[in-house]
Structure formats: C-alpha cells, structure tokens
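Hi R.,

Quick one: here's the Lyase family protein sequence you asked about.
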Amino acid sequence: MSTPASPSEHPATASGSTGSDGSAGLSGVPGLTALAMEADAGLLDPLSSGTTAVVQSSDANYLLHLLQVEAAWTAVLAEHGMVTAAQAEAAAEAADPRHLADYDLIGLARAGQSGGNVLIPALKAMRARAGQAAPTEPGVSSAIHVGATSQDIMDTAMMRMAAQVAATILADLRAAVGSLAAMATEHRATPMVARSLAQHSLPSTFGLRAAGWMSGLAQAGRRLEDATAELPIQWGGAAGTMAALAGRVTKARADGTLDAGTLDAVTDAFTLVEDLAQRLGLQAPAGPWQTNRMPITGLAAALADVVAACGKIANDVLISARIENGELGEPLVAGRGGSSAMPHKQNPVLSVMIHAGALGAPGTLAQVLTAAGAANEERPDGAWHAEWPALRQLMRTAGGAAARTAELVSGLRVNTDRMAENLNRVGPLLVSERLMAELAPLLDEVGSGRARSGKERLQEIVDRSLDSQHGQQQGNDFRSLLRTALPDTVSDAELDGLLDPANYTGEATTLVDRLVAEYRNFAEWSTT
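And here's the predicted structure, written out as tokens:
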C-alpha cells in the first residue's frame, strides 16, 4: 500500500519564517509543502526503506488498523443487537481502505497532541466519515467506540499490525533458512579456517559456518513465531474494569435488544470481547493488560533476536569479503556497492545495512523494556507513549534485516580457492592442537638432567618456526624441525597426514548434517 496523499495542503511558510504551529520555515526549498517536509520517506533508514515491513508498519497502515478495529467492534455489537446493522455498515464504510486517503495523516498527528494519542482525532474523523456514509441513519456516531477507551483500540491495532509484519519477516527468514540449508549441504566438506578472537584457530568447513547461520535464523524465527502466535486483544475500558461495556450490556439486556429472539442468551462483556478477538485474528486473554506489558516485551525481544541472528551473518560476510580475505562476496547487482571515487571497490552494502540494524536494535529493545518497567497503575503516564515508536522501529529493523539477509544468502558468492589459500596461510601450525595430543608424547625427553615434556619441546619447535616466518631466523621450516625431532616410528606419510589441515575438521560434516536436519524444515514450519 502506498502512503495516501492528504486532500489538504499545508503550505510552506515564507523563507526564514516560522509556521503558526511553531515549526521552522522551509527556506530554500521551493515547491515543497509542509506535508512533504513532515513525511518520513526513510532517507536515514536504508535498511528498512522500500521493504514490505516498512509499508505494513507505516502511519497509514496503523491508522487503517485503528479504523478496522473500531469497525470490527461495531460489527460485533450489531451481531448481538447492541447497535443496528446500518450503523455497523456505516462504520465499515468509514474503515474501508479505499477511503484511507480521506484521512489527513499529518493533521491527525498534529491533533493527537491535544489528547496525547492519535486515536482521539482519528475517532472523530471516522465518526464524521461514517455519518456521511449513512446520513439518514440516526446514532451512527454513538454506535462507534462503545464501552472502549483509546488504549483498547491502539494496543489492539498494534497487535494486529505486529502480526502482519511478523508474517512478512517469517516468510523472509524461511527463505533465508532454505538457502542456507542448501549452502551448508553443498559446502559441508569445503575446508576453511576457523577464527577465534580475530585469529586463525583451527581448520573447519564453510558448510559448518553456513549451518550455524541457518540455525541462528531458524531459532530466532521460531521465537518470533511463538511470540506472535497468541497476540492478545486489549479491552478494559478507562480503568481496566470494563465498567462502561458492562453497563451497556446490562442496558441492552433490560431493553430487550441483546441477542433479541435468541433463547437463553448468555452474552456478557467477555463474550463480546472474545467475538472481537476472533474477528480480528487475535487471542482473548483472561483480562486486560493495560500496564502488564509482557505481550509487548515478548514481541520486542523476539524481533531483536531476529536482528541479532541476521547481524551475525552480516558480520561474518563483512570480514570474509575483505580483499585480504576474499572468501565471500555479496550478490552482484548493477549499480549497488560501487564507489564514485574508488571504482575498484565493491562495497558489501547489504551486510553494512544489516550490521547497522544489529547495532541499533538493542537500544530500541531497551526502550521498550524500560517503558514496560515504568508502567504504573492502570494507565501509564508516558511509558506507554514511549513504547509506540520503539516497538514500530523494531518491526521495521527486523523486517529490513530479514529481507536483506534473505537476499544476501540467496546469492552469496563463495570463493573456495581463497578459503583453501587462507587455510594454508599458517600452514601445519594450524593443527598444533592435534599435534600436542598425538605427537607430544613421542617427544618426551628424560634423563641427562635435561628432562623436558613433549609439550615443551613441541612448543619450542612452534616458536622457532614462527621466528622463521617472521624473518628472525631462516630455514626453520616447521615440518623439517618436527621431522628431525620425531622418532623414525612416525613415517613421512603419517606426518604429512597429521599436518594436513583438511584432515583435522573433527565432526564438522556430521554437525552440518545434524543442524540441517534439525532446522531446514523451518522453511515450511508453522504452527497450526
């Protein structure tokens, strides 16, 4: 959905002047209206801009959810005889996406300052629109928002929006997991060097690294699936007691309109809320959760997990794509990643954007958690308000990270020759751990007052070889030094086999198979 245009114009103020609302003038920007200047096009958020998730979490889409929650509630009341069918139809007409452009987003945002939330002016605009849709039907305005409070509508709309965004994120994660499962299987035995603390550590395989990426994404995806499987409706009224709704139910029962014609009707306030939850595709909790923000914190944490899992992949690609490593390359797309000043560069911009998201998401999550911990009494005085932009930003960051990661891994270029070259850069020293276990016992030196353990002798050989590599001594080849120290019971062929890094990848291939078997089905996995 494209962001709808507003029918009203907010003309730019004169150069150097200040608008009537206190905003700075648009000096030096001819032709731009205040509407254009206030709109967020995502210029500073390239990670999420242009993605489905950012459209689904737009102001326009959130407003649509607000309107549709109100319309759904009116429809539920009509089903139980508490408002008329014509009134519900008018509410539905006011919430129809085709009429979204009739709502002035920036005007609503400005008007929302008066009451501290946008639902107040949005409800006023919806009632006016509904009245226009059914000009001869009395009571249309009062039939909308019956027994509800602003938080009921806003929290419920946010849950509905979160479910929509999460479905998009999960689709991208499943695609990425599928790509990584195939990549891990293809390269299950492709040797490469493992690195710890930024240094070469032991031989491994690229398949194992890809399987690790896959398992992280799948785990994060399953957490998001769990967090959004039972997103709850919020309905408590002004103070969480449902008093206004209960009063309306009692009146409708006394008037004989509640489920008129139905024998033994048992409709109460809880029945209505449960019906609304079913209509909206949400869960009906035992009670309101105005200041119990666990549904929000669980959702936010799951979104942050998605970003972290994507960030891990991006960080590895950034390191491996360095020219001096050259092991990986991002998908080649015309016009992307080039440098106007340095034509030789191919910047890994997908990974850069994902990495930026991974740096920012923890702070955004902290804002959500801080707001939850600051919630007080039956309606937070600012904590709830601080939650809105942070939660939405997490949706957008996770959505952008998942989309960019799916693209990244689907076309990742793998340079196996450079992996082999880097693996052999340290040479047989890379398997020193293995040598300590298998050869050190053969190097034990006893007697003649010079008793030294095999580990000490092997370490001396390693040190002499490193000195040779660093130019401090010449001719101290590690294999030659080791061959001289070892007894003849170790053949040259056995020694060469022990020194070959490709022969010391442990259970890497089996681990790949186990991880792929465990997580590849996430690509088709969903709860029922």
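The chain has 19 helices and four strands.

Cheers,
M.
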